[in-house]
User: Which sequence fits this backbone?
């Protein structure tokens, strides 16, 4: 056997996967129901989708799953029902495979099963769902549901990031920024995070706020830091207001005659973000600290 022939399986295993994106289009029947959305009450709209779902329309099943997963159309969130719909789709849609994997990964709507999630993410990726590549890659990096394979996990995330997946760009940027599973490269991390943040990825925006706040691999810039924290807050990072409050507080505070003095020019900003942090931050200790700072400034 020639050497090249013997090595061919190894070489092919290391090649980048060929990606053909899944076409998420739906049937004409689902399109017709969607066009009538404004005419129908939510119950009637869902009933129309249910009729199609009962006939095996996979687009209707996927959409119904998304409705109950997110609690749309005044429906209460019902993750069990959502996962039931995704499961009924089977292998017919890559996005449903991804959503079913997430049911098992998060343990919401199904009992947590990382081994099954890992398999389903692989199937979804093979079927053309880009987000599934780094979802599986993260599991390989962490050893969830099977053996640890950091190198392969990073490859999968980089592959998806190169193709524009903002979540993969965020995850890859985070790994490069932290330097725990790969060499720390803050400049490259910032590049990936910026690409993700420009696609409205809230976690990437928050990390950029931290990068510019600390001057990590770039000149320290509190204006840019605050701008990114504000974007992160708009995109759902409830811990960003606390960072904004501290940022303004740091610039406002100075020592005078052994006492801490607050520059009144910063007070409105501290109060604005402190009040928000006291209401929305997911950490009870930070909420309390923000409330105490607000109360002290208002006294």
Assistant:
């Amino acid at each position: 056997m020639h050497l090249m022939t013997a090595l061919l399986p190894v070489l092919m295993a290391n090649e980048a996967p060929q990606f053909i994106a899944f076409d998420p289009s739906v049937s004409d029947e689902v399109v017709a129901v969607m066009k009538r959305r404004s005419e129908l009450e939510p119950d009637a709209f869902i009933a129309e989708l249910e009729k199609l779902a009962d006939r095996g329309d996979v687009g209707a099943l996927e959409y119904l799953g998304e409705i109950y997963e997110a609690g749309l159309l005044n429906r209460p969130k019902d993750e069990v029902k959502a996962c039931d719909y995704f499961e009924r789709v089977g292998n017919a849609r890559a996005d449903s495979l991804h959503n079913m994997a997430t049911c098992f990964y998060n343990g919401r709507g199904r009992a947590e099963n990382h081994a099954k999630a890992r398999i389903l993410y692989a199937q979804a990726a093979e079927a053309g769902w880009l987000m599934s590549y780094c979802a599986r890659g993260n599991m390989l990096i962490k050893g969830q549901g099977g053996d640890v394979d950091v190198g392969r996990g990073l490859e999968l995330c980089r592959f998806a990031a190169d193709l524009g997946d903002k979540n993969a760009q965020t995850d890859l940027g985070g790994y490069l920024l932290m330097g725990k599973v790969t060499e720390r490269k803050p400049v490259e991390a910032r590049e990936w995070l910026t690409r993700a943040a420009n696609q409205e990825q809230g976690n990437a925006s928050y990390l950029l706020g931290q990068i510019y706040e600390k001057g990590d691999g770039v000149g320290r810039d509190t204006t840019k830091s605050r701008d990114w924290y504000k974007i992160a807050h708009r995109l759902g990072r409830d811990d960003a207001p606390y960072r904004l409050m501290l940022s303004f507080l740091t610039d406002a505070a100075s020592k005078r005659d052994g006492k801490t003095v607050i520059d009144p020019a910063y007070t409105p900003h501290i109060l604005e973000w402190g009040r928000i942090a006291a209401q929305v931050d997911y950490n009870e200790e930070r909420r309390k600290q923000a409330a105490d700072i607000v109360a002290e400034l208002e006294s």
About this structure: The CA atoms of residues 8 and 14 lie 10 Å apart. The domain at 131-235 is CATH 1.25.40.10 (Serine Threonine Protein Phosphatase 5, Tetratricopeptide repeat). The longest helix spans residues 284-298.
